[in-house]
């Protein structure tokens, strides 16, 4: 039965490939990065890369997109420090993930990047033969049956780290029975975020599952991002700021309509950051259609960071004159989420007003910001529940409740400060997952 499912899976990949490539080219209209490095997606590479004679072993880390790449930062840094002779092969599936990796690790000559090829035996075989990794480390939920099978054939251990598996994803996986269970059995080590994640991963047949916690708690806000956040706050000139971070399609309209209906503090600024960059212009249109004054982060950046620094140094009277004249600031930039968190007074974490599973609230907590979330947080359920229980986060039922709670927080300095302190304490309490993960990986790398 497993052979049947594996054969069917591979056939479906080959049949779907023209559609997959066509969609890739179509998405390239708005994101040109999708049209670059196409050969890598098909398993074709140039000459084997040379990155110094000291790079005696290759550690592969697969981080599909932006969130996983940012989460991988402390792991990559610790791997580089623990094995000075290694190089890191950082693979992605999206151009935004690749750009994030380049920004995070461009200072390291021992980090190389590539797209992971589509999951056919031919393509992943060429990929593994070209790079010959010592170990294949997959971040969070990235289970690719043919890649795992090919690693087994090459004798390459596979580690699923920072692993999470929601009940909904588990039920989807069980629909493919033999295929997913064979893939799970091929995972040499799974380092799960929570006991619940570990139990669900074990139920699929993974032989060695440990609980290490979430590596995302170990991500350190870059100093440059904090400086950018301070410059943005200077432009806001004391205005109360609600950040809606990583919003998904359908949420922005709900939030904007509630923003118009809700009695809010004088001068309140809505900082709106869509999760997907191809939607920036669409969200801008939603703002303008409602008659709200719009500013874009990209327009502020065009004036140069020097101008923002100058604004940060102005006196109170001058700041009032330089204040950003907008109701909504659209965060249409990449890699600045920490800066946005630093610049806001409280933060809503997107994907949770609608049944989309929510996004990671850890970064906001790590900067001591009060957090608001909707009812749909099954992608990060335990972290969200613990943050709520700790008093650093608050659930809201809908967009109107979101704006009411945000307005109340923005007008109550003492409550906002206390909630932010509890969020910061919650984040600090859960650090250390990276070190625990690397200790588990050591026996496979050495």
CATH class of the largest domain: Alpha Beta
Number of strands: 14
* Percent helix: 40-55%
Question: Which structural class do the helices and strands define?
Answer: alpha/beta
**Mean pLDDT, rounded to whole units?**
90
- CATH superfamily of the largest domain, by name, is 3-Deoxy-D-manno-octulosonic-acid transferase, N-terminal domain
Describe, in short, the structure shown.
The protein is of the alpha/beta class. The protein contains 21 helices and 14 strands.
Structure description:
The chain is built from 21 helices and 14 strands. The protein has helices at 2-27, 38-41, 66-82, 95-105, 121-131, 145-154, 167-175, 177-185, 195-203, 223-236, 251-261, 280-289, 297-302, 305-312, 316-322, 337-343, 362-366, 381-390, 399-410, 413-429, 433-445, and strands at 57-62, 86-92, 111-115, 135-139, 158-163, 189-192, 209-211, 241-247, 269-274, 294-296, 328-330, 346-349, 371-373, 393-395. Strand 1, helix 3 and strand 2 form a beta-alpha-beta unit.
Write the layout of secondary structure elements.
Elements: H1 2-27, H2 38-41, E1 57-62, H3 66-82, E2 86-92, H4 95-105, E3 111-115, H5 121-131, E4 135-139, H6 145-154, E5 158-163, H7 167-175, H8 177-185, E6 189-192, H9 195-203, E7 209-211, H10 223-236, E8 241-247, H11 251-261, E9 269-274, H12 280-289, E10 294-296, H13 297-302, H14 305-312, H15 316-322, E11 328-330, H16 337-343, E12 346-349, H17 362-366, E13 371-373, H18 381-390, E14 393-395, H19 399-410, H20 413-429, H21 433-445
Parallel strand pairs: 1-2, 1-4, 2-3, 4-5, 5-6, 6-7, 8-9, 8-12, 9-11, 10-11, 12-13, 13-14
Helix pairs in contact: 1-8, 3-4, 3-21, 5-6, 6-8, 10-14, 10-16, 11-19
